[in-house]
Amino acid sequence: MSTSALATLLLVLKDRILKGPKTKSQKAGIFALLSFLFLVLKYPNRAIGTRARPDLDGIAWGGMPIIGNTYTILKNRNKFLQSIVENFEKLDTDVMSTTVLGLGRVIAINDPVNLEHIMKTNFENYEKGYILNSTMSQVLGNGIFNSDGSLWKMHRKTASHVFSTKIYRALIDGAFTDHSLQLCAVLDRAAQAGKPVDLQALFLRLTLDAFAKLSFGLDIDSLGKEGQDTFGSSFDYAVVATDERFMNPFWRVTEHLTTKAFNMKKAVQVVDSYAYNAIKGRRSETAAQAQVRQGPSGREDLLDLFMKWRDDDGRALSDVELRDVFINFIIAGRDTTAQALSWMYYEVMRNPAVERNIWQEVDKLDERPTYEVLTKDMRYSNAVFLEALRLYPPVPRNLKTAVADDVLPGGIKVQAGDRIMFSTYAIGRNKKVWGPQAPEFLPERWFEGNSPEIEKGTLKNSTHSNAEDHTWPKVRKESTFKFSSFNAGPRICLGQTFATLEALTVIMMISSKFKFELVPGQDEPEPVPSLTLPMKNPLLVNVHRRH
Ligand code: HEM
To answer: 470 and 344 in contact (C-beta within 8 Å)?
Structure first.
């Protein structure tokens, strides 16, 4: 029935029902009931405000009147990623249509072909958009993760100068190794005292210290401090609370009905104070001091580069804009790599053959890492890191908004304003993409000569062989649309090499000295809903010296 026919019918009904004497409140009640009925009939299985899309019926994920899929998503909030994987499997599809209050129509894709279309072929048509920007802006401001168009280009171009082989070499020789040594000292003390540690918390401290120092010259030294990591806990709170907003269309109101708005403000203030201190310090630096800090090669860090930036009219970035740079790069440089390492070591502890192979590899290396060693002699560890990123991508889902109408490669129509959701977590576990053993942790699938859809029994260079002196094949380059953990297309992660080298430094230094064992009795780690992929609970491990 068309909307106007429906409205006429309800108007007739209203006149009939309202005839005869009625009190004001009775009339209001009847009016509310009829309005509700009108909305139920107009939006029988989709969220209010969305257009009917009979062309998407075949790929629709159910839906309730007026609220569409909002309730189901809220109900599954704590297992949202797992529920995406299950639903794609259950419906046996790679494109799914949902409607959600506050977001409108959300088309979820789960395959490399559609991802390539969104992220590269028709990149200009899919932007982060207003909803994403306004939901995340309290924390991310207008930084690189939260911007489109010319603003995004400015961030990307300016930051890209930091990522070069020369810098990587300096980092391996300096910050990466120094902070890994500091981590080794903490682990050594835990091993001696026989006290368990939270490995996830330690990795977060390491990546924060390393990244804050090299990008903004900040000495946070969270690894060196016992007790709470104030910056880290405030930052974590803000990131998780921001993500919750995507699940709650009424967050602008509900946050003020609880302590959330207040807590969020406080958390952001703590994080901001670090950013503004770094900026203030840098603004008051003399040329001579800058020269000492940058060393003989005049190495400029991220803050130097962004402070030097000028637009066509000669305008420099304000303190607020520089603060946005700081926060965006901290989330990029701290959370992602630390979470990847945490999930990786969790899998290593569950797979003794994988652990043995890492030991065999790192035991052959010199004590201090170099660029050559990390890029050439750590193939097995690299494959293990990639496999962890496939199953546990630190940026597990993403949302884009269509600027104009479009058609996806399979023929699905997209209307301007529709959202496209893709989950790297779900794509990484999609059996149609990664084979029947997609859910299994099999580092060998990354080697040249092995197919990624490998089945355990058919593995070449199996981890389950006991060969003492393996020379592992080269690590395969995978399509970024299939392995999208570092994103794909023009917005591909700028820090991919940085993160890999940092992770390999850590693996080399800690696995050559320590063995980790999960503290028995703790729950299986599971992700907590967030913009990234933190473990819900501490990753408690007992540490033993290997030698
Ligand atoms: C294992 C570690 C990492 C993973 C899995 C990862 C993954 C990603 C993903 C999925 C995106 C796209 C995010 C989005 O558009 O919403 C991204 C963007 C980005 N990453 Fe990473 N990242 C990692 C580490 C790093 C590190 C260490 C840095 C910096 C040193 C970094 C810098 C960036 C930047 C600047 C962007 C924004 C790119 C753009 O929008 O043009 N990442 N990363």
So the answer is: no
Segment among 51-55, 175-179, 467-471, 474-478 with least mean pLDDT:
467-471
Mean pLDDT, to the nearest integer, of 88-103? Answer: 92
Q: Is the pLDDT reported for residue 452 higher than 70?
A: no
Task: State yes or no: 493 annotated in a binding site.
Answer: yes
Check whether 425 has a pLDDT greater than 60: yes
Q: Residue 537 Cα, ligand 1 centroid: separation in angstroms?
A: 24
Residue 503 Cα to ligand 1 midpoint, Å, equals 14
Q: Which of 85-99, 175-189, 211-225, 477-491 has the lowest mean pLDDT?
A: 211-225
Greater confidence (405 vs 22) lies with: 405
Place of tokens 């804050």: 212
Question: Strand 398-402 to strand 126-127: parallel, antiparallel, or no bridges (unpaired)?
Answer: antiparallel
Ranges 32-46, 171-185, 347-361, 465-479: which has the least confidence: 465-479
Ligand 1 pocket, residues with Cβ under 6 angstroms: 144-145, 156, 159, 332-333, 336-337, 340, 389, 393-395, 398, 485-487, 491, 493-495, 498-499
Q: Give which of 209, 337, 210, 217 is closest to 275, Cα–Cα.
A: 217
The number of the ligand 1 atom at minimal distance from the alpha carbon of 156 is 41
Does residue 156 carry a pLDDT above 70? Answer: yes
Please report which helix (H) or strand (E) contains residue 538, including its range: none
Please tell me the residue having the least CA distance from ligand 1 atom 19.
493
CA–CA distance, 225 with 253 (Å, rounded to integer):
38
Q: How many helices (H) and strands (E) does the chain have?
A: 23, 10
Helix or strand holding residue 187 (H, E): helix 177-193
Place of tokens 């007992």: 542
Gap between the Cα atoms of 13 and 31, Å rounded: 11
Ligand 1 atom having least distance to the Cα of 328: 35
Distance 327 CA to ligand 1 centre (A): 13
State yes or no: pLDDT of 27 exceeds 60.
yes
pLDDT at 470: 61
State how far Cα 211 lies from the chain centre. Answer: 17
CA 215 – ligand 1 centroid, Å: 15
Give the residue-averaged pLDDT of 432-449. Answer: 92
Which residue, by CA, sits nearest to atom 42 of ligand 1? 495
Mean residue pLDDT of the chain comes to 90
> Which residues lie closer than 8 Å to 36 by C-beta, 6 or more apart?
none
Q: What is the pLDDT of residue 312?
A: 87
- DSSP line for 222-267: -TT--S--HHHHHHHHHHHHHHHHHH-TTHHHHHHHSSHHHHHHHH
Pocket test for ligand 1, best of 206, 389, 487, 531 (most atoms within 8 A of CB): 487
Kindly list the structural domains of the chain, giving each domain's residue range(s) and its CATH number in brackets, ordered by start: 156-545 (1.10.630.10)
Mutate to test the pocket of ligand 1, among 493, 531, 532 (most ligand atoms within 8 A of CB): 493
Return the residue matching tokens 């939901």.
135
Of 120-129, 142-151, 189-198, 220-229, the one with minimum mean pLDDT is: 220-229
Dihedral sign computed on CA atoms, order 201, 207, 212, 217: positive
